Amino acid sequence: MIAIADVVNGYKLAEARWARFGPYYAMFPVDFAFEIVSKYSQDGDFIIDPFAGRCSSIYAGGVLGRHSLGIEINPVGWLYGAAKLGPADQQEVEGRLEEIYKKRNYYGKAVNKMPIFYRMCYCDEVLKFLISARKNLDWKNDGTDATLMSILLVYLHGKLGEGVSNQMRMSKSMGQNYSMKWWTKKGLTTPPEINPLTFFKKKIFWRYEKGKPKVFDSQVIFGDSTTELEKIISRSQETGIKFSLLFTSPPYYSVTDYHADQWLRLWMLGGAEVPKLLKDRHKGRFDSKDEYYKLLDAVFANCAVIMEEESTIYVRTDRREYTYQSTLEILTKHFPDHELSIIDKPYKKRTQTEVHGNKSSETGEIDIVLTRTKS
Question: What CATH number belongs to 4-75+215-257+285-371?
């Protein structure tokens, strides 16, 4: 049995090296994910997260020997999760990296047509390589390509020397105009000269140095929970399998646009060159209280069908009144026989939700826990 402390502290084990894989907005802290899975489930249990993000909950479940299933609508989070739950062999990933690098010079003309932001963000050698990867990696269908693409996404932007870009944040993509003005003001109009093959070989070597993580029967589905859960219900009815732990953190009402925050990584996955707010259902910022309520209601209603009678529902949410009260009302409606407890999690430091849009005086988050055990 692996020691949780060895996973959540340091990088000596493969499980630790992959545990924090993928910078992502509003992610579960790794130690928190392992704590909850360990406390509220047993070896061999089935756990589910319908808003999986970068899959910290599902990864914790898999490492701890639980059958773990996640659903994530954002391709960036899904890729991070899919890669760390089942990374391809290192040799295959490095071979694919070399193939993509060799094709880079086919895209010299494409570089010259890119908006000025990209020319200020990346040197030509990096930009040719990125376009080659963008055009040739079949990340949706091929495990090796998915692993390589996920590694490229991790280092697509960040602090100088830590990524292949000019100076940027790592977790959230900043706007093009904002970035260009900031670079100009700071005298950073020329991007760093980086050899992408050398850079990513070093990153791949470090990630795989301790091997691949041992993850038990875990999967993340790329899709919308409102539709994917209906398929899971059908399979549950056929197999008789139900879940003992629902562990998740839904999107917060009117705080951030999860896709806009990742626009540069979404460009890498084939998206638009210029960031834009998405109008697709359940992909943009939740500004409609009605739509937000309907989403949570539909998801937790479907989850209730596939949960064991004796189960735990653990939901971390925003402490602002509408998000919290809506989530609480929906959960108690769909799990009326569970015992409710509230764990308040105020933070003294600025939280991610505050940095990215929550200006409320109500800081921190709240955990809603519903449990039902044998009497």
Answer: 3.40.50.150
Residues of the chain with CATH 3.40.50.150: 4-75+215-257+285-371
Q: Grade residue 351 by pLDDT with cuts at 50, 70 and 90.
A: very low
Q: How far apart are the first and last CA of the chain?
A: 30
DSSP string, 240-301: ---EEEEEE-PPPTTS--TTGGGHHHHHHTT--SS-----STTTS----HHHHHHHHHHHHH
Higher pLDDT, 170 or 118: 118
Q: Over range 63-84, report the average pLDDT.
A: 96
Would you say residue 361 has pLDDT above 80?
no
Tracing tokens 């409710």 back to the chain, one arrives at: 340
Q: Which H or E run contains 312?
A: strand 307-318
- pLDDT of the residue at 36: 97
Other CB atoms within 10 Å distance of the CB of residue 271: 18
The answer to whether residue 277 scores a pLDDT higher than 60 is: no
Residue 28: φ, ψ to 5°:
-65, 135
